[in-house]
């Protein structure tokens, strides 16, 4: 299919590498087949409100190294603003043949529904949480792990100076990939993830074990972790635009419990949005660029209702249902492997 006009939008939470996807798509499309591109501002909000910006080689020059997204993002649900009919209307008005949707689980689930309702869509998987099925990795994850690792390296030095226990909270929503990878990288004495409920007795065992060996214990906890005694995730911040609990604060809950149970002075640090900001890592720039290029090739082949994906080192195309069918959680064997190093 020659000379298509493709729309691009970035939806949901931001992640380092979004701009590299945009650049990879635009440069590939212009050079290989004379495609033209339009950006929809602020995710699906830009589609339903017909808010666009041009995307040509000029607009995307040098943006692969920039964090965030030059076209903005939001958590707008198109089905709350006219649904597929409104989307088709705006695409027709702008003479857009198809959409490239860069998003996470919620965004791609919406994209799948729109595809079923007749909107030609190619998906690109994006989330720092690495929780999407159908792909080995999502861009943004490597950067988030690197930022968390550097921050916790710094926490260790201050913890060791004072012989304190440090509890570091990382993002990840309902999966523990960021906690697992950054915790292994930094040599944490305990990693707590949503996939495995843990008791205070077990936490106390590992913290005291490290302390008794003369170490300043470092505990890495994912924001979606639950103690064995908890029925739901810890959320103090209400609901987000999609009606999901805003996670965060579990480290502040755990620190005084650890302090009380062990007698070891304990401090909590929540890394928060630092993990998803700033310059993307080289790995994420390369992966995101390859995703953008592959998305254009998939559109050219009319592979609507599919998303680009990485399997091993190869970029492949899979059905959107593989991405949104279920969360990609940390397997038990991966956690058990890490647990050999605890304490």
From TrEMBL:
<keyword id="KW-0460">Magnesium</keyword>
<feature type="active site" description="Proton acceptor">
    <location>
        <position position="129"/>
    </location>
</feature>
<dbReference type="GO" id="GO:0048029">
    <property type="term" value="F:monosaccharide binding"/>
</dbReference>
<feature type="binding site" description="in other chain">
    <location>
        <position position="223"/>
    </location>
    <ligand>
        <name>substrate</name>
    </ligand>
</feature>
<keyword id="KW-0963">Cytoplasm</keyword>
<keyword id="KW-0808">Transferase</keyword>
<feature type="binding site" description="in other chain">
    <location>
        <begin position="171"/>
        <end position="173"/>
    </location>
    <ligand>
        <name>substrate</name>
    </ligand>
</feature>
<dbReference type="GO" id="GO:0003872">
    <property type="term" value="F:6-phosphofructokinase activity"/>
</dbReference>
<dbReference type="GO" id="GO:0030388">
    <property type="term" value="P:fructose 1,6-bisphosphate metabolic process"/>
</dbReference>
<dbReference type="GO" id="GO:0061621">
    <property type="term" value="P:canonical glycolysis"/>
</dbReference>
<feature type="binding site">
    <location>
        <position position="164"/>
    </location>
    <ligand>
        <name>substrate</name>
    </ligand>
</feature>
<keyword id="KW-0547">Nucleotide-binding</keyword>
<dbReference type="GO" id="GO:0070095">
    <property type="term" value="F:fructose-6-phosphate binding"/>
</dbReference>
<feature type="binding site">
    <location>
        <position position="267"/>
    </location>
    <ligand>
        <name>substrate</name>
    </ligand>
</feature>
<feature type="binding site">
    <location>
        <begin position="75"/>
        <end position="76"/>
    </location>
    <ligand>
        <name>ATP</name>
    </ligand>
</feature>
<comment type="subunit">
    <text>Homodimer or homotetramer.</text>
</comment>
<dbReference type="Pfam" id="PF00365">
    <property type="entry name" value="PFK"/>
</dbReference>
<dbReference type="GO" id="GO:0006002">
    <property type="term" value="P:fructose 6-phosphate metabolic process"/>
</dbReference>
<dbReference type="GO" id="GO:0042802">
    <property type="term" value="F:identical protein binding"/>
</dbReference>
<dbReference type="GO" id="GO:0005524">
    <property type="term" value="F:ATP binding"/>
</dbReference>
<dbReference type="GO" id="GO:0016208">
    <property type="term" value="F:AMP binding"/>
</dbReference>
<comment type="similarity">
    <text>Belongs to the phosphofructokinase type A (PFKA) family. Mixed-substrate PFK group III subfamily.</text>
</comment>
<protein>
    <recommendedName>
        <fullName>ATP-dependent 6-phosphofructokinase</fullName>
        <ecNumber>2.7.1.11</ecNumber>
    </recommendedName>
</protein>
<dbReference type="InterPro" id="IPR000023">
    <property type="entry name" value="Phosphofructokinase_dom"/>
</dbReference>
<dbReference type="InterPro" id="IPR012003">
    <property type="entry name" value="ATP_PFK_prok-type"/>
</dbReference>
<dbReference type="GO" id="GO:0047334">
    <property type="term" value="F:diphosphate-fructose-6-phosphate 1-phosphotransferase activity"/>
</dbReference>
<feature type="domain" description="Phosphofructokinase">
    <location>
        <begin position="5"/>
        <end position="298"/>
    </location>
</feature>
<dbReference type="InterPro" id="IPR012829">
    <property type="entry name" value="Phosphofructokinase_III"/>
</dbReference>
<feature type="binding site">
    <location>
        <position position="13"/>
    </location>
    <ligand>
        <name>ATP</name>
    </ligand>
</feature>
<keyword id="KW-0067">ATP-binding</keyword>
<keyword id="KW-0324">Glycolysis</keyword>
<feature type="site" description="Important for substrate specificity; cannot use PPi as phosphoryl donor">
    <location>
        <position position="106"/>
    </location>
</feature>
<dbReference type="GO" id="GO:0005945">
    <property type="term" value="C:6-phosphofructokinase complex"/>
</dbReference>
<comment type="function">
    <text>Catalyzes the phosphorylation of D-fructose 6-phosphate to fructose 1,6-bisphosphate by ATP, the first committing step of glycolysis.</text>
</comment>
<dbReference type="InterPro" id="IPR035966">
    <property type="entry name" value="PKF_sf"/>
</dbReference>
<feature type="binding site">
    <location>
        <position position="105"/>
    </location>
    <ligand>
        <name>Mg(2+)</name>
    </ligand>
</feature>
<feature type="binding site">
    <location>
        <begin position="104"/>
        <end position="107"/>
    </location>
    <ligand>
        <name>ATP</name>
    </ligand>
</feature>
<feature type="binding site" description="in other chain">
    <location>
        <begin position="127"/>
        <end position="129"/>
    </location>
    <ligand>
        <name>substrate</name>
    </ligand>
</feature>
<keyword id="KW-0479">Metal-binding</keyword>
<dbReference type="InterPro" id="IPR015912">
    <property type="entry name" value="Phosphofructokinase_CS"/>
</dbReference>
<comment type="pathway">
    <text>Carbohydrate degradation; glycolysis; D-glyceraldehyde 3-phosphate and glycerone phosphate from D-glucose: step 3/4.</text>
</comment>
<keyword id="KW-0418">Kinase</keyword>
């Amino acid at each position: 299919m020659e000379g298509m006009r493709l729309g691009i939008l970035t939806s949901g939470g931001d992640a380092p590498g979004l701009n590299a996807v945009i650049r990879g798509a635009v440069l590939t499309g212009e050079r290989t087949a004379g495609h033209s591109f339009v950006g929809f501002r602020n995710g699906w909000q830009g589609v339903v409100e017909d808010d666009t910006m041009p995307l040509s080689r000029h607009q995307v020059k040098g943006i692969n190294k920039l964090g965030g997204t030059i076209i903005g993002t939001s958590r707008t649900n198109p089905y709350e603003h006219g649904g597929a009919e409104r989307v088709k209307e705006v695409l027709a008005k702008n003479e857009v043949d198809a959409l490239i949707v860069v998003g996470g689980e919620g965004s791609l689930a919406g994209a799948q529904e729109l595809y079923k309702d007749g909107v030609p869509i190619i998906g690109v998987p994006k989330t720092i949480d690495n929780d999407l099925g159908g792909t080995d990795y999502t861009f943004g994850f490597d950067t988030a792990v690197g930022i968390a690792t550097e921050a916790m390296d710094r926490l260790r030095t201050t913890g060791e100076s004072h012989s304190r226990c440090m509890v570091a909270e990382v993002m990840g929503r309902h999966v523990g990939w960021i906690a697992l990878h950054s915790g292994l990288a930094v040599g944490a004495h305990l990693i707590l993830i949503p996939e495995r409920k843990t008791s205070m007795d077990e936490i106390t065992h590992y913290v005291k074990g490290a302390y008794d060996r003369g170490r300043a214990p470092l505990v890495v906890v994912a924001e979606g972790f639950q103690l064995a005694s908890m029925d739901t995730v810890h959320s103090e911040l209400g609901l987000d635009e999609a009606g999901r609990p805003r996670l965060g604060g579990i480290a502040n809950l755990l620190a005084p419990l650890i302090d009380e149970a062990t007698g070891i002075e304990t401090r909590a640090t929540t890394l928060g949005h630092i993990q998803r900001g700033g310059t993307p890592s080289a790995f994420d720039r390369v992966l995101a660029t390859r995703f953008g290029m592959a998305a254009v090739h998939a559109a050219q082949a009319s592979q609507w209702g599919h998303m680009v994906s990485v399997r091993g080192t190869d970029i492949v195309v899979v059905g959107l249902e593989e991405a949104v069918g279920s969360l990609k959680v940390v397997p038990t064997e991966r956690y058990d492997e890490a647990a050999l190093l605890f304490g």
